[in-house]
Write a sequence for this structure.
């Protein structure tokens, strides 16, 4: 009903969604595995492909989604927020803080053999408390991760649409770089906007 179809109770008018993203940053942690499994049962009968993604904090395991992710539920994409924490991408050279390897292992252990990890970054200086990086640093770090974790590295996710819209030069350069280097990218807001 809410991802497509027709009903007088549709919350998003005529919009058709392509999946569900769990960006859980507080509250109760129970029930998400069952929720994902129930969605998967609906998706298996659907006429189109739907996605399930998460947006955990980079601290591993994530305080709010850790138990869900370790329960081995089907996840298509993990949009890991590598900002606002000591594990942000700015600390990629600090093995005590930055930890992509755990997210790589998590994706490899997922029942979805194509599960990916996206590096989530702020789309502008004010989009997050910390973690915004200049373009040369982002390009260098993405190249390193792409080459070091080729089977699970999905690309980059920028948070959020309002900062993305107000920082067009940055997003344009990120997009050009990722496209030229065959790296995927996503814009993360309340809904995922897939940009090609």
């Amino acid at each position: 009903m809410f991802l497509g179809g027709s009903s007088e109770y549709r919350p998003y008018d005529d919009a058709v969604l392509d999946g569900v993203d769990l960006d859980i940053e507080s509250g109760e942690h129970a029930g998400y595995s069952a929720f994902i499994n129930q969605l998967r049962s609906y998706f298996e009968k659907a006429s189109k492909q739907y996605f399930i993604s998460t947006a955990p904090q980079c601290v591993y395991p994530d305080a709010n989604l850790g138990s869900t992710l370790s329960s081995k539920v089907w996840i298509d994409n993990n949009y890991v927020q590598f900002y606002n924490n000591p594990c942000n991408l700015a600390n990629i050279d600090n093995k005590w803080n930055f930890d992509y390897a755990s997210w790589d292992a998590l994706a490899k252990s997922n029942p979805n053999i194509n599960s990916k990890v996206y590096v989530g970054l702020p789309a502008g200086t004010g989009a997050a408390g910390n973690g915004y990086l200049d373009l040369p640093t982002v390009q260098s770090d993405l190249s390193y991760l792409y080459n070091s974790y080729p089977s699970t590295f999905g690309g980059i996710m920028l948070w959020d649409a309002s900062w993305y819209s107000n920082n067009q030069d940055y997003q344009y350069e990120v997009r050009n770089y990722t496209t030229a280097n065959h790296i995927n990218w996503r814009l993360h807001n309340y809904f995922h906007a897939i940009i090609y």
Residues 189-196 have pLDDT under 50 and may be disordered. Residues 179 and 196 are 9 Å apart (CA to CA).
